[in-house]
Fold this protein.
Amino acid sequence: MTDISTFLDMGGYAGFVWPSYGAVIGVLAVLLWLSLRGLKAAERELAQLEGEAPRARRASPTNDGAAQP
């Protein structure tokens, strides 16, 4: 039990260490949220653009891929 409390005390620096961990976790959570929000917006925009102008299909090759003169 004293090993855990010694670890959590961080040698007397727990007041600096644990809030730092909390701040990092908070910043990472915000970055994740912003990234997912941006991804969804980009996917919506892509779907909208693809709906406005459907992709042209590639023409199928008429030969076996040999170069024509």
Notes: Helices lie at 2-9, 14-52.
